[in-house]
Design a protein that fits this description.
alpha+beta; two-stranded antiparallel ribbon; 1 helix; 9% strand; elongated
C-alpha cells in the first residue's frame, strides 16, 4: 500500500486561500475525495485535518468496496 505523508500545498491560488490536497491511499482503486471549507488556526492544523479526512475516506471506501 502506498501512502503519502506530506500533502502538497497549492501556492498558485489566485484567491489567496490556502488549498491542501491529501491522498491517503490508491491501493484499492482511484482516490475518492472530500472537501472542507473551514478556517484553521494555522496551515499545519489544516494539513492535519486534510490527512485525517483522506484516511477516513480510505477506510470508508474500503468498508463499502467503492470503486
Amino acid at each position: 500500500m502506498r501512502t503519502t505523508s506530506a500533502p502538497r500545498r497549492d501556492t498558485r491560488s489566485a484567491s489567496g486561500i490556502p488549498i491542501v490536497v491529501a491522498v491517503h491511499s490508491t491501493a484499492r482503486g482511484p482516490a475518492i475525495g472530500g472537501c472542507r471549507i473551514k478556517p484553521y488556526r494555522s496551515v499545519g492544523d489544516g494539513v492535519a485535518d486534510a490527512l485525517r479526512l483522506s484516511r477516513a475516506m480510505t477506510l470508508k471506501c474500503g468498508l463499502c468496496a467503492c470503486r
